[in-house]
TrEMBL record:
UniProt keyword annotation of Cell membrane present: no
Any one GO molecular-function label of the UniProt entry: NAD+ poly-ADP-ribosyltransferase activity
Source organism of the structure: Methanolobus chelungpuianus
Record-given protein name: Probable RNA 2'-phosphotransferase
Keywords from the named record: NAD, Transferase
Function comment: Removes the 2'-phosphate from RNA via an intermediate in which the phosphate is ADP-ribosylated by NAD followed by a presumed transesterification to release the RNA and generate ADP-ribose 1''-2''-cyclic phosphate (APPR>P). May function as an ADP-ribosylase.
Family: Belongs to the KptA/TPT1 family.
Record EC number: 2.7.1.-
GO biological process: tRNA splicing, via endonucleolytic cleavage and ligation
SUPFAM superfamilies noted in UniProt: ADP-ribosylation
Presence of keyword NAD: yes
Domain of life: Archaea
Length: 211
């Protein structure tokens, strides 16, 4: 559920995590899920199919998106779209003036490297299944269903991400500093996720906690 606190803005849950106030109802769980699936598809996977024109950096006109959304969901107001973005603890989307885009997770080709800040962490992490580990250690990491490799800023985050897909994940440590020194672009999209077009094998090793 999404509600709005007069003091702290949109939040998810029954009470504002900042002050404990109940706030004003904006969106229930079912509509939040339906709207979230639509926005994810429109901004990450099939913008043209829903009638959106996306620029090379993944931005679309937020008013156009809202109009398309309203045709599908009569209850799909601009406020509810904004509330979905601003209350998202994973930081999936961003609004800048009259434009909106997904920060990560694209299967359509977008250029995010030129917009986001360069990574400053010396090491990053990437979780895989045991079946994938040897192949990736030898061949490097390239995107499969997405246009960027999504790296984690901590071993714990990589373990959590990989655990969604496999019961016994292996976590790689990425020598990000060396990779960037050699000209590989690695950019930060939020405090948990960092993007790269690919990571060659020479920068990959098994994280110490996994050895």
């Amino acid at each position: 559920m999404i509600r709005k606190c007069l003091q702290h803005g949109y939040f998810r849950g029954e009470v504002c995590p900042e002050c404990g106030e109940e706030g004003r109802y904006v969106l229930d769980d079912d509509r939040e899920e339906r709207l979230g699936r639509f926005i994810s598809g429109a901004l990450r996977h099939f913008p043209e199919d829903v009638g959106l024109e996306m620029d090379p950096q993944g931005w679309v006109d937020v008013d156009v998106l809202c109009d398309i959304m309203k045709k599908r969901y009569k209850w799909g107001t601009m406020e509810r779209l904004v509330s979905l973005v601003e209350s998202d603890v994973k930081g999936r989307y961003e609004i800048d003036g009259s434009f909106i885009r997904a920060r990560y997770g694209h299967s359509v080709d977008v250029d995010l490297v030129s917009d986001y800040p360069e990574n400053e962490l010396p090491y990053l992490y990437y979780g895989v299944s045991q079946e994938e580990a040897d192949m990736l250690l030898e061949n490097g990491i390239t995107p499969i269903r997405q246009c960027y490799v999504h790296l984690s800023t901590s071993l714990e985050k990589a373990m959590q991400a990989a655990s969604i897909h496999t019961e016994n994940p292996v976590v790689f440590e990425i020598d990000a500093a060396a990779a960037q020194d050699d000209g590989i672009d690695i950019v930060v999209v939020n405090e948990d996720i960092v993007l790269a077009k690919s990571i060659p094998s020479e920068y990959i090793s098994i994280a110490d906690a996994q050895e």
